[in-house]
C-alpha cells in the first residue's frame, strides 16, 4: 500500500466507557457509515492518523514519479512514451489531490512537503527500488499499481469524506495504469527471447517488494485495530496481500512467467495460494532508509525543491506586485 | 534529398518530437507540482503532434517508415528540427525562454497552416492550434512572472532570452523547400510570421521588463540536418532500446 506502517497513535482501541460524549457520537457516525467532513468534530488521534496516512500516500505518488520518469526519455515507441508520460502525469495529479485532502485537516502543502524533504514523513518502500530495464515499467504498472488498487479500492469507502472522494478518482486512473503495465509485459512475453528474459527478470526483482507494499504482517501491525475501528483501514495487511497473490498468480501464468517463490502453491483447503516467507529484514531496512535508492530519491526531491525556490519566489513576488497595482488602480 | 513534402513534414514533426523529449526530462523535477504537470502536459501535446506529422511523412514517403522508424532509426544528420528545440533545459528561465520563442512561432505557423491546400496538414494544424494557444498563453505568463518577479528571476530570465536569441533566426528562414511548399499553397510564408512574432515578443518583454536582445548574427543548419552537439546525446538516449534490440516489437 502507498501508506505503510502508519502510526495511528493509540495501540489499543478505546472502549466506549473511556470516550467523551463527543467521541462516542463520532464513533456512532462512523459505525452508521456517515462520512466525516473537514469541519466535523474528530478526535485528535483520528486527525493525526489521517494526516500521516494521506500524506504518506501523497508523497508516494510524487516520489513514484521518479522511477517511472527514469524511462520516459527512453520509452521504446512513441505510443509507449505517450502512455508513460500520461501515466506519470496522473501520479503527479494524485499527489495534488491528496495534498489538498491533507490541507482539509489543517496542514498546508508546504508543511507536508517539508516533512518529506526533512525525512520526517515516509513514502512507500517500493519506490526505493531501481527501474533497470524497460520491463520494470511494465512490472510497476502490473504489480505495484495492481497492489495499490487492491489497497485503495476499500479506501474509497473510508470514513473521511475528502480522502474517500479523492480515492474514487485515483482508483479509476490506477486501473488504467495496471492494464497498461500488463500490456507492456504481454508485448515483452510475446516478443523475442531477450524481451521475455527482460520480463522475467523484472518479475523476479519486483515480486517480493510488491508483497511488502502491503505492510507488516498482521501479527506485527500494532496500529491496525484502531484504524479499522475508525474505518480509515478496512482490511488487514495480510488479507490484502493474500488477495494480491491470488489475483496475480494466474496473470503470471497467462504471461508464461514464473513467480520467484518455490513455496508458492494453491491450497485447496484454504481456497488461496500459500506463499513463502517475506524477508522482513529487507522491508524494515528499506523503510529505515537503507534501500537501493532511498538516498537518491530524496535527493532528487530536495534538489527539485531547492532549485525551484527562485521560481516560486518570483511567481509570488509577481502576484504581490500585480495585486498592489490592481488595488491602487 | 526526399520529396519536398516529406522534408517539410519531417521539419514539422521533428520540432515537436525533440522539444517534447526535452520537456519530458523535467517530469518529476519541476519547481512546483503544478508546473511539473503543465510541462508534462505540453510534452504530451507536442508528442501527439509529432506523431501526426511523422506518420504522414512516412505515408507520403512510401518507403515503409512509420512514426517509430522515423523517430528511432534516423541519425542526427537526418533530423530536420530547428536548433532552438534541441537546446538543453538549463534552469527554468532557459526552458521558459526556449518555450516562449517556440510557442509564439508555432502559434502563428499553425494559424497559417490551417489554410494549407493539403487538407491533412490543415486538419492537423487546426487540431494542434487549440493546444498551442494554451502553450503560448502559459509561456507568455511565465516570461512576465520571471522577468518582473524578483531581482534573481529577472537576471536569470534576461540571461536566458539573450542566450537563446541566436537560435531564433532559423525559425523564419525560407529555403528552397519552404519556397516550394509556399508556391504550392501547402506551406506557410515563414518570413511573414516574423513581424507577428516580433510584435508579441516586444509587447511581452516590455511588460516583463526584459530587453529584446540586440544580436543580429543567427545560427542555422537544423533544417538541413546540421545540428548542435546537443542532439546526438538526446538521440542516443531516446533511441537506445530500438538500437539495442533491432526489430523487436514493444
Estimated radius of gyration of chain B: 18 Å
Low-confidence stretches of chain B: none
**What is the terminal separation of chain B in angstroms?**
31 Å
Q: How can the largest sheet of chain A be summarized?
A: 2 strands, antiparallel
Structural class of chain B: mainly alpha
Query: pLDDT average of chain B, as an integer?
Result: 97
Shape call of chain A: globular
Q: What's the helix-strand series of chain A?
A: HHHHHHHHHEEHHH
Fraction of helical residues of chain A: 55-70%
Category by helix and strand content of chain A: mainly alpha
Helix content of chain B: 55-70%
What is the 3D shape of chain B? globular
Total number of helices of chain A = 12
Q: Assign the CATH architecture of chain B.
A: Up-down Bundle
Biggest sheet layout of chain B: none
Tell me the β content of chain A: under 5%
What oligomeric assembly is this protein in? heterodimer
Strand content of chain B: under 5%
Query: Got a strand count of chain A?
Result: 2
SSE inventory with pairings:
The complex is a heterodimer of chains A (329) and B (250).
Chain A: H1 21-31, H2 44-69, H3 78-103, H4 109-117, H5 134-155, H6 161-189, H7 193-212, H8 224-229, H9 237-255, E1 265-267, E2 272-274, H10 280-290, H11 294-307, H12 309-328
Antiparallel strand pairs in A: 1-2
Chain B: H1 4-24, H2 33-61, H3 67-72, H4 83-86, H5 92-113, H6 119-147, H7 151-164, H8 176-183, H9 190-207, H10 230-238, H11 240-244
